[in-house]
Amino acid sequence: MNLNRTRAAVLGLGTSGEAAARLLQQRGASVTVFDSGKPDAQKIRTLQDLGISIITGEAADMAKADYDLTILSPGIDPVVPLIQNFRRQGAALVGELELAFRFCERPVIAITGTNGKTTTTQLIESMLNSAGYRTVACGNIGMPFAEAVQRQGEFDFFTVEVSSFQLETISTFRPEVALWLNLTPDHLDRYPNMAEYRTAKLRIFENQRSSDYAVTNYSDDLPGLVARQITFSAYSEGADFILQGETICFRGEPILEMKETQLSGFHNAENLMAALGAAHAIHIPWEKAKSGLTNYRLLPHRCERVGEIDGVIYINDSKATNLDALVKALESQPQPVVLIAGGKDKGFAFDAIAGLVHEKVKYAVLIGEMADRIYQGWSKVVPSSCAQTLPAAVDQARQHSIPGGVVLFSPGTSSFDMFKNYADRGNQFREIIQELAR
Prior knowledge:
The protein is an alpha/beta fold. 34% of the residues lie in helices and 21% in strands.
């Protein structure tokens, strides 16, 4: 695809926007990047040195949309003035994921779902590399897909984590292996209802062919899929991959013992099954697949043990940005916990898990924008209190913990009301615990 003499606009100068701009410029386009904020000055100078124009602030929100191609960065909400200005002028928006795919010359394994995307994407990356296939985890995790495509000579496959936001703007994106992990309430501050959120996610399958594979959660009722389907479930017997005790089996054949891995819990068993489904789709023998899976270590902020103080274990699960992730964290704890939860209001109610909270939590400390609302529901089933800051929340949690117990930091929603992101939130929690432990 030659873009010589093509005038391209990129909306947003985050990581994905920068990668898209570089890819377009590399392929011959004349590129202008628009960003309503104040991007890093060094990043601007670097791109300008490449011949890429940058327009920021109010000028970006009022720009003329007279471009041959307009690329939307996935992290930008379509309702902001920058995007609405281009749409009012008739610009057709192409997402960074779709742009990168148009230049992609390698098979794509794509992973979507409300929870477990990053873990599963990295499991597949580890599995393929250990089996002798060159790949990189990219997309909605770490390296943007547009950056990975610029280096595609280094890879045999692309292992791409994709979000609903990215899938909103595809037209030709086609993974040869598409993984659907699960669907639970999330992003209802962006989508008016679950049906629209689900519709966006389902687009991962829309361009697949009969020769492709769809690896799907057996519990989800998906529309008729063109691709060959492989199912998994840690809860049901009818799937291709099932969990028998602590053994993952494929159509009755034992494949992998959970104790061979560094992972635990039903949710991680399903992440492992999904990765093994990808292995089956691309014909990797089980023994080769197992090597990468057993060596994998979880990233920080995912039920990460960060310290022990006076006999109490402190667990950082800041990556729990929705209710289902919080549920999985609680279910993985064998004993009652002191729970720190709460954060940004994303449009769903915590009352839905009050029964599990009653069963698993001995005391709850609530923080963030939703603290009072969660308190109204949970205080009827478990002793609870609210805290204005994370240090105050930890202090309250310590007062209600006992030796041999656990303090679990699993917010169950986003962090942007108090923190930069979930990693900033988790890092602050870890630093508080490590300081107290000294």
